Amino acid sequence: MLIRSFPAGAFGTNCYAVASGPGAECVVVDPGMEAVEPLGRMLADDGLKPVAVVLTHGHLDHTFSVLPVCEGYDIPAYLHPADAGMLSDPLRWHGPALAPLIGQVALPDPADVRPLTDGATLSLAGVEVTVRHAPGHTQGSVVFSLDLDDSPALLAGDVLFAGSVGRVDLPGGSWEAMLGSLRDVVLPLDDATVVLPGHGPATTIGRERATNPYLAEAAGAPKGRGL
Length: 227
Prior knowledge:
The protein has helices at residues 36-46, 60-63, 66-73, 90-94, 99-102, 175-186, 205-211, 213-219, and strands at residues 2-8, 13-19, 25-29, 49-54, 77-79, 113-115, 121-124, 127-133, 142-147, 152-157, 160-161, 164-165, 194-197, 203-204. By secondary structure, it is of the alpha/beta class.
């Protein structure tokens, strides 16, 4: 398994390419701001050919380049339906505090946007990823589970970071839902699972279980919370 990444734009959003190996087809994850040219260079370095873009959620720092990437390579995008419309009306979903950074940006959706469904397995480019709906950061946030050569991995978007979790104060965010996602989706994962987050360095479930205060809070949250 080959995973490459780079931090895109002012928000440093991690954009990933996942492939079975060099010279193979690949899946692009979260092409954010100013991602088109560095993504092209990263793909060329390993001879990768993208067949789809998968989005962990609809915030602009994760989706800004999805249209040019999809059009440039003639590939579909995958997004959870609960986050549909975020590209065309970003100010509604990012809040007034981020308005100066976003401006009046409004981007049309790619021509081919396919829905992500909780529990579905996507077989793309020789890679199988399992989709889990994990709301809290946004209503349509998802994480993607996959197997590396020697360990499981989680493309966590803005659900889980090294030492932290995604913010819940933007429109559509919910701390109750985040607790439910951390408890029901993240905490059951094996400690060896490598977490590939939407921002910042990689970590593991075991490390976060032992040190992340938000996971400790989620572990004690009663069932039914976050629903």
